[in-house]
Design a protein that fits this description.
This protein is about 70% helix and about 0% strand. The protein is an all-alpha fold and about 230 residues long.
């Protein structure tokens, strides 16, 4: 199978697409961290790092990583039927309404931005196919889809995606606890081994192995929907 290409041009693309400044609105989502801070479940850098490690290893991180890998391969294999199956699977695994919005809003915004600045007939065709019946495209599926179309190596794209996801959660924690930028960087540095482990698991696992064991994370997301004072949408 074609595994994509390591090149300076592809590196520039993936760095740009997963930059905090890319217009997907990632900064307005906390993945339930806002309510966890209010409840005292996340109090400092240590508890923030433990929380994100759990999300990566047992929750959305690993689930999205597997979907990312499978989506990338389906695009390379030109298997549109498989893509649609993965899209439905991704939707089915959203545990709360706010997490669904978090994923779908970023996914749709990502596709729209790429189509505007990096136009591709193949992307237009596939995204139109996936969006039939006004369906949304989850963020992990969107980034994997675009990465494969542009020939970016799976391992590079997946690593960058998991790191960007983690960075956004750290950023939310920095603002909410608050812990300051330096402690936030220490948390992100401490997550490196977990990110790489989840990447390896995602590359070799089947969707049959997908699951979630982050009930408290899901609970905080659900409770956030009715939180009285909120800075974030999730």
């Amino acid at each position: 199978m074609n595994i994509g290409t390591h090149s300076d041009a592809n590196l520039l693309k993936i760095l740009t697409w997963l930059s905090p400044n890319f217009p997907v609105g990632a900064y307005i989502y906390s993945h339930g961290i806002e309510f966890a801070v209010e409840e005292g479940l996340i109090r400092d850098a240590y508890t923030l790092q433990n929380w994100i490690e759990g999300v990566l290893t047992y929750g959305v991180g690993c689930k999205d990583g597997i979907l990312f890998s499978e989506t990338w391969r389906a695009v390379i294999e030109k298997n549109d039927v498989r893509l649609l199956e993965l899209l439905e699977m991704a939707r089915a695994f959203q545990p709360t309404a706010e997490m669904e919005i978090e994923s779908h809003a970023q996914g749709n915004a990502f596709i729209d931005a790429i189509c505007a600045a990096w136009p591709s007939n193949q992307l237009n065709r596939i995204s139109s196919y996936l969006k039939q019946d006004n369906k949304n495209i989850p963020y992990s599926v969107a980034v994997a889809l675009v990465s494969a179309i542009h020939g970016i190596a799976l391992v590079d794209a997946l690593t960058a995606y998991l790191n960007a996801f983690s960075s956004n959660l750290v950023s939310a924690g920095v603002r909410l606890i608050p812990i300051g930028q330096t402690m936030g960087l220490k948390v992100l540095a401490g997550l490196a081994d977990t990110i790489l482990t989840v990447k390896e698991i995602s590359l070799t696992s089947s969707p049959k192995n997908m699951g979630s064991a982050t009930l408290v994370v899901d609970w905080t997301s659900a409770r956030h929907e009715t939180q009285y004072t909120r800075l974030f949408r999730s």
